[in-house]
């Protein structure tokens, strides 16, 4: 998997978007947001731990709505998720999802 990520990152003109491996909500994003975000950012969360109401990541549509914010706080500022812990490979895949993999 790491060789694939390195190949995608170095694709020159297309940035992180490549035709050989498509990151989508279904094949990667849903699992990422379930793991890192939905404990606080879900309509079904029993304790949001201060996460604002209405900022949820239960669906691809939610992510599309909040795409710019996710890019800023997760990729640029790296202030979410609280406590960090996101693998570098997952950050690259998230960048691919936000840039190329949403409907």
Task: Describe the structure in your own words.
The protein has 103 residues and is mainly α. The chain has one domain (2-8, 22-100). The chain is built from five helices and no strands. Helix 4 (67-76) packs antiparallel against helix 5 (88-100). The longest helix has 13 residues, at 88-100.
Map the helices and strands.
Blueprint: H1 2-9, H2 25-36, H3 60-65, H4 67-76, H5 88-100
Helix pairs in contact: 2-5, 4-5
Return the average pLDDT rounded to an integer: 87
* Gap between N and C termini: 24 Å
One letter per element, helices H and strands E, the order comes to HHHHH
Model regions low in confidence, pLDDT < 50 over at least 5 residues: 1-14
Rg, rounded, reads 14 Å
The figure for the number of domains is: 1
Tell me the β content.
under 5%
Please give the count of helices: 5
Fraction of residues in helix: 40-55%
Say how many strands there are.
0
Main β-sheet, in a few words? none
Q: What would the principal axes of the Cα set say about the shape? A: globular
Q: What structural category characterises the helix and strand content? A: mainly alpha
């Amino acid at each position: 998997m790491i060789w694939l990520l390195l190949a995608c990152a170095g694709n020159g003109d297309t940035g992180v978007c490549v035709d050989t491996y498509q990151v989508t909500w279904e094949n990667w994003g849903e699992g990422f947001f379930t793991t890192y975000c939905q404990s606080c950012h879900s309509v079904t969360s029993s304790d949001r731990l201060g996460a604002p109401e209405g900022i949820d990541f239960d669906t691809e549509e939610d992510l599309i709505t909040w795409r710019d914010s996710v890019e800023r706080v997760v990729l640029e500022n790296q202030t979410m998720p609280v406590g960090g812990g996101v693998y570098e490979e997952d950050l690259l895949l998230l960048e691919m999802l936000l840039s190329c993999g949403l409907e």
